[in-house]
Every structure is written in C-alpha cells, then in structure tokens.
Amino acid sequence: MSDLILEPTAAALWQRLIREGASDAGQPLDDELEAYLMMLLQRFHRRPELARTIMALEYLKAQTGNGGIRAGQLRDVGDQCLLFAGLFPGIARRRRVGIDYFVDLGRTAYLDLAGALSQGAGQLFHALAAGFVTLMDTLSAMRARPAFEALGALDQFELWSRTGSRGAREALARHTRAIPVAPPHTDTRH
C-alpha cells in the first residue's frame, strides 16, 4: 500500500514530488530550475493530446515563426521534449527513436530560445538546456518506477553514453551488476 500524500495546494504537491525526485536522482536542483519544473508540470498535467505531437515538426514550425509566437513555440518544444524524455520514455520507443532524440531536440529548442531572448530570460533557458539531463533524471525518479528501469540494458547504455544520464547509468549498473565505462569517443555530459 502506498503512502497518501497530502499537501495544501497542487503547487505544494508538485514541489514536494520534484524535491523528492531530485533527491532520489542524487542531483538537487537550484531554486530556478525547481520553480520552472513545477510550473511546467502544472501547465501540462492535463494535456493528453501531448502524446500525439510530432516534435520535429513543431520545432520546424517554430523556426518559421517570429517574435513572441516563435518564443512560445520553442519553449513548448523544449518543455514537451523534457516531459517525453523524463516521464514518458515509452513514446520514444513507439516512435522508433531514442530518448536522446528528445534530449537533443529539447536542448536545441531551449538554446535557440535563450539566444533570441534578452539576457535575463535567456539565461533561464540556457540553464534549462544545460540542466536538461538532470531535469530528465528528476522527472524519471518522480515516477513510481524510474523510467530507465523499463529500458533494456542496451537502451540504458545508449542513453547514458549519449546524454550522460546518471539515472540511466545507475539502472544499467543494477541491470548488469557491472560498472559501465563509456567508450573513449562518447560525450558523457554530467
């Protein structure tokens, strides 16, 4: 039987879940990233149509936009890629792409947005791009069963070696009872 979680508001519940997820992932978030992730979860928690979105097309559509519309579209692409990578990795498998596809596309959208915004707002989106894998690991840890446990050993290794995901590396170590070592050419971002 699971524990009943009682919080006075939805925001307080999201904050608690995020903090527990970050702690379980072994990667505490700074206040800015925690607040953004809380806002993101509140904004998207009742949008089942999200699963039907084709992210590459949304990204291309954002590239043809301008001003505030473009900024909103880039933010949505980054946010949705983060949700797919952290909470719904099965979508990647069904679409026959790796989770790193969502990581790369989401980071790129956030970086494009950072470059298009003023210094202050741009810094937030630069931080989101830099912390994308940490945020993904936090979201995964928030699930009852971390998303990386559902992946096979080869998928866990591929995700870790391509993105530096600590959660995927730890799942791989549990799965194989071995300590994975990245090939010399691999970019393992931490």
Short note summarizing the structure:
The chain is mainly alpha-helical and 190 residues long.
Secondary-structure blueprint:
Elements (H helix, E strand, L loop, with lengths): L9 H16 L5 H14 L10 H10 L2 H21 L1 H6 L4 H18 L2 H12 L1 H11 L10 H11 L2 H11 L14
Helix pairs in contact: 1-2, 1-8, 3-4, 4-6, 4-8, 6-7, 9-10
Q: Could you characterize what this model shows?
A:
Helices cover 68% and strands 0% of the residues. The chain contains 10 helices and no strands. The longest helix has 21 residues.
Q: What is the molecular shape? A: globular
Mean pLDDT: 81
Distance between the termini: 35 Å
> What is the structural class?
mainly alpha
**Rg of Cα set:** 16 Å
Please work out how many helical segments DSSP would assign.
10
Strand content: under 5%
Tally of strands:
0
Order of helices and strands: HHHHHHHHHH
Low-pLDDT segments, ≥5 res? none
Report the helical percentage.
55-70%
Main beta-sheet annotation: none
Number of domains: 1
Index terms:
190 residues, mainly alpha, 68% helix
